[in-house]
Amino acid sequence: MPWGSSTISKAPVLLPEEPEVIVRGNGCRIWDDQGREFIDFRNSLGPVTLGYRYPAVDEAIRRQLENGISFGHPHPLELEAAELICDLVPGAEQARFLKTGGEALAATIRMARAHTGRDHIVHIGYNGWLNALAPGGPVLPGRQATDLPGVPAAIAGLHHRASWNDAAGVDALLDEHEGQVAAIMVAADYATMALGADFYPQLRALADAAGALLIYDEIVTGFRIALGGAQEYFGVLPDLAVFSKGIANGMPISAYVGRRDVMAACGPGGVTVSSTFGGETLSLAAAIACMTTYRDHDVVQHLWDTGQRMWSGLNSIFTESGIPLQIKGFWPCPTFTTVDGTDAGQWLTPFVRMAFKHGVSLYTVPYVNFSHSAQDIDEALERLGKACAELSTTAR
């Protein structure tokens, strides 16, 4: 297989310490094919928000499996899931479903173009591989594009990169392409997400003044920093938004939601956004069970509290060990950075390798899930303390 995996970010690069494959998960722990156990903070790169084999979700999947997976007409679960997400997300008046966040974002781009009659798109942050079309923009999280293989120049010319918290840069793009921008699409920056308190209102004002739509990429922020994502947390509503990783505890589903008049762009007589598996029932059943658990058990507060316990504890270990790394950002979805401007890879790569060696699975954006208990966090910090001590000794 090219890359050795269908998901580039999952392909192991730190062998032999890193697991080559994962064969089982339970709660907040995973096991590889060698029987090694890891306390997991990768969580399938974000989708496992409640924990592996979470009972309410697995039971919902089993119940639906008895009745069928996919049909030639809509299943009632499709409407039930749409009603639930519209109840939970402030800016959602209507909703539809696809399988991945990237394709749902692509759908919103097509809808924005149809709704506005314009062609150009401003991208802020990584918006999925389908939409990694802006020269100089990220082709993967944290990986900027030097060129765009497979993207015709005519298409790349319609997509424009802007930086997080750079309202002036967005304004300049809107001026440069006056009357031509269909939408501003924004994914929050992990390390400096708090800056959204000013940036989201600025984007809303800029979009309104330019006659463009504002689209939120809530694939990471949705059902994580707040039940309704960044739009609830910061109190600024978009015209369209996409949710995916937080919806169904690992089952493949995405939702694109928004204002009723804008969502009409993919209705009868509008653009064609359609997929055979958009209404697949196992993922819908999982999504309903997952979102209901979020609503009824204050999962988001657990992610904030447990994340603070975990990542502030790790920051203390870094300081005590003299390792110039830090975890920065909102506790439910922070990222690794350096404290002194040192290249993060110089320290992060050996640290993550050492963490694997001591039984902790990490990624550049690490996540806690609802199944991480205080005892799990204490054990993980103990293991990482040993990893940092060994790394510090090796570095000297």
Automatic annotation (TrEMBL):
Highest taxon of the lineage: Bacteria
Transmembrane segments: none
Keyword Flavoprotein: no
Gene3D superfamilies, per database record: Aspartate Aminotransferase, domain 1 (3.90.1150.10), Type I PLP-dependent aspartate aminotransferase-like (Major domain) (3.40.640.10)
Coiled-coil regions, chain positions: none
Cofactor: pyridoxal 5'-phosphate
GO terms of molecular function: transaminase activity
Keywords: Aminotransferase, Pyridoxal phosphate, Transferase
Keyword Ribosomal protein applies: no
Family of this protein: Belongs to the class-III pyridoxal-phosphate-dependent aminotransferase family.
Protein name: Aminotransferase class III-fold pyridoxal phosphate-dependent enzyme
Taxonomic lineage: Bacteria, Bacillati, Actinomycetota, Actinomycetes, Propionibacteriales
